[in-house]
Amino acid sequence: MTDVPTYPHADVVLCPGGPLLLRGKHVIEDSSGELHETTRRVTALCRCDKSAKKPWCDGTHKLLPEKLTPS
Ligand code: FES
């Protein structure tokens, strides 16, 4: 059995009303099948579907009425 490393934080965080945060290196496949390799320590993925930079969060979720924000 291999040892599972423990980290002081989760690698994936769902922000209530906002993006999905990914920590570490990942490859994201967007809705058109294009692959995007992450280059930052933390990456925010849009969950509200209103970002102008999808698949990335651009902060637009902060402008939406509460009923349109992701849960
Ligand atoms: S979650 Fe931030 S713009 Fe969509």
TrEMBL record:
It comes from the Bacteria. Residues 30-67 form the Iron-binding zinc finger CDGSH type domain. Gene3D superfamilies: CDGSH iron-sulfur domain, mitoNEET-type. GO terms for molecular function: 2 iron, 2 sulfur cluster binding; metal ion binding. Keywords: 2Fe-2S, Iron, Iron-sulfur, Metal-binding. Pfam families: zf-CDGSH. This is Iron-binding zinc finger CDGSH type. It comes from Nocardioides szechwanensis. The lineage of its organism: Bacteria, Bacillati, Actinomycetota, Actinomycetes, Propionibacteriales.
